[in-house]
Amino acid sequence: MSERPSTPGGGRNTRHPTGIRVVICVLALFALVLGPLGYLMGIDADSHAGSAAEWLTLTFGAAVGIPFLAAAVATVAGDRKAALWSLALLAWPVVFVVVIHLLRSAG
Hints:
Elements: H1 17-43, H2 52-77, H3 80-88, H4 92-106
Transmembrane segments: 20-43, 55-77, 83-103
Keywords: Membrane, Transmembrane, Transmembrane helix
């Protein structure tokens, strides 16, 4: 049970909903950019310093860990819609991996 009293409007987050949404958007932007960037660096690891395993581990952390972090933050803040959108970002790794491999095989 929460020690915080429920809000009069039926349990919605009325304290700082805009601030939570901004934090979720920043985390989503990190996941959307760092996931594909790390994956491309992992694929191309032999031409620069660093191993592919390190880059792919960072990619997994960015593409999967950040959306889970965003969902957790939104859940604690009481923003269900932002939490669901954060969890929807878990489909993004499948999309960018498929697109990257299709583009590499086509070109």
